[in-house]
Design brief:
6 helices, alpha/beta, two-stranded antiparallel sheet, Rossmann fold, 8 strands, 6-stranded parallel sheet
Amino acid sequence: MLTILALHGSGRDETDLSEFCHQLAPQARIIAPRGTFAQADGFTFFKRRSDRSIIVTEVLDLATKWVSQEVEVDLPTSGEVIVVGYSSGAIFAEALMSVVPERFAGAVLMRPEPLSPNFSFPDMPAKPILIVAGKHDERRRHDDAAVLAKQFTQAGAVVSLHVIDAGHGWARHNADVTLARLWLATVAAN
């Protein structure tokens, strides 16, 4: 049975991706943890520096600790687990993929940014990764998605990168879920 691990963005909570995940895979089991740190009116999985840069070692350490406590979040040890992350949740998904790539069958990363410009993922041969970036995303550098795609490709992953007509928020006409559903159908067929 397919399991989706849904990781929300900063200032949001565990309900944020419910509708997206249900539309993506109605029959899937959805695990949606809440980020550990309070931020704005919601939560986040990690903290940034005041200049909004990412402390890579800290995020990787948090991901390692999260995985070691996975019994509490009920993440299956076997079966198909796709991690779905939005914004900072996508960045935390990258960290999880880095520390335990074998636990995930693939990833859907929406409005992500690389953990760092020179980050190297461990080997993940043929692991399917979908990256959906917004062409007008005011919170990301114009090349963030391409840099991340290259990092995953260098690790052996099979990356599908889409830059869509959107900002940091959801695209119009359900474009994000449409792309993700097509990608998941292709992955399931292989």
